[in-house]
Amino acid sequence: MHARTQIRKAVATELAKISEFGGHVYTSIKRAYKQQPCITILTPHDDPDHSQTADMKIMHELTLRLEIRHMESDDIDDELDDLCALVETKMFVDPTFGGKVKKLTLDSTDSDQAPELQREAGLSIIEYTCIYRVMQDDPETIVS
User: Fold this and answer.
1) What is the distance between the alpha carbons of residues 110 and 125, in angstroms, rounded to a whole number?
2) Nearest to 131 by CA among 45, 62, 46
3) pTM for the model
C-alpha cells in the first residue's frame, strides 16, 4: 500500500472518532455526500524532494485536504467552524499518525457553499502539509 494511502487511512481512523460525522468519513475522490455532515480526506499533491536523498531516502511534502460538508442552515458558518475545531483538535492528538508522518502543519482553511450538491450545503476545506519519507525504490515503506 502506497505511503499516501497509509496516511489517508490513518487520518480517516482518527477522524472517524469524531461522533458528529456519524461515521461518514471518506478517503476517495469518488465522493458520497448523501449523509451530512461528512468529511472527505484527499491527497491531491505530493512533492518529493530529490535534493535530500541521503541513503536513498526521499522526503515528501504531501498536501492533505480535508473537505467538510454540512447541510445549509441559518447557522452554517458557526456549524462548519465547530466541525473544523473538532477536526483541527483531533489532527494534533498524534500528529505523526503512528509514525507515518514526520511533521504536520496546518496551512489554510476556506469555507464556501458546496456547489456540486443539488441541495444547499456548506463546505470547509482544511489543508495541511504532511512531511513523510520513503526509500527511493520502495514507496510503500515509510522510514524515519
Assistant:
1) 5
2) 62
3) 0.90
The pLDDT profile of the chain, 144 residues, written as one tens digit per residue, is 999 999 999 999 999 999 999 999 999 877 666 778 999 999 999 999 877 666 889 999 999 999 999 886 788 889 999 999 999 999 999 999 999 999 999 999 998 876 665 566 788 999 999 999 999 899 999 998
Distance CA 86, CA 98 (A): 20
Handedness of CA 25, 109, 129, 115 (dihedral sign): positive
What is the C-alpha separation between 4 and 65, in angstroms, rounded? Answer: 12
Name residues whose C-beta falls within 8 Å of residue 121's C-beta, 6 or more positions apart in sequence: 33, 36, 69, 70, 71, 72, 113, 114
Q: Considering only CA atoms, which of 2, 4, 69, 13 is closest in space to residue 42?
A: 4
Paired with 48 in beta bridges are 60
